[in-house]
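Letters spell out the chain; the tokens describe the backbone. To illustrate:

===
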Amino acid sequence: MNRVFPKRNPILWLVLLTSLLLTGCVNYDVGLNFDNSNSGELVQHIKLGERLTSFSGDSVYEWLNSIERRARKLEGKTQRVSQEEIIVTIPFSSGRELQEKFNEFFSSRANQLSESVQSQSDSELPKIESNVLLEQNNFLLLVRNRLIYDLDLRSLSLIASKGNVLANAGSILNLEFSLKTPWGAKNIQLTETAIEPEKNGNRLVWKLQPGELNHIETVFWLPSPLGIGALLIILFVWGGLYLRYNFMPDPRIQFSPKAATAQEQ
């Protein structure tokens, strides 16, 4: 049975969040790695600063433990590099499964936080909205993909401004989103909140901005194993028929009555 965070005073949660921003850098990298249209992984790499863990104690470790539990629930696996660092890998086999697992994982985190303070109606916990959408169009051998990711981090700046304790959250929080595909991807900037990525080979990396509405939109192509498999089967059958009727004797002649009589004599 899954545990939830113990109920605490909302002011204590606010102090905890403030201490997170002030006492140590938090590295949170989220990546989507595609092999083809039917195979990929959602990878998360989280590393907390030592000053943060020493100050926050069990609350931070319980948060990391909850990430492990949610990953296992989604058929994922975790690697605990150290007490403060964790790598989570969640596989997916289709665009629909990616959407479901991605959105469920990040929404469950928000739900778990809200459950821990559900008796406190005046809670000051930040609300972070996250949603990914993947549109796919099949062209037999290839699949065209359009990925849209929206992450609302404006609540972080609201808390910082109320407490007058943080001038630049981006200098302390290091948040990244990356996309790796076999043939690379094309970034689409249609809105003012779109982020310009850095390109590293076949990987695009976006630096997410705390305190802002982050919008990512990109288009990329993937090979279709089903389409390629169907084409290979057609070529195999066609090749067999071609060999049969061009390099082998006609069975109507080979097994005709005259041929059978000649063989008996």
User: Anything to note?
Assistant: Helices lie at 10-23, 50-56, 58-73, 95-116, 154-163, 225-246, 251-254, 257-264. The radius of gyration is 28 Å. DSSP finds eight helices and eleven strands in the chain. The chain has two domains: 10-223, 227-264.
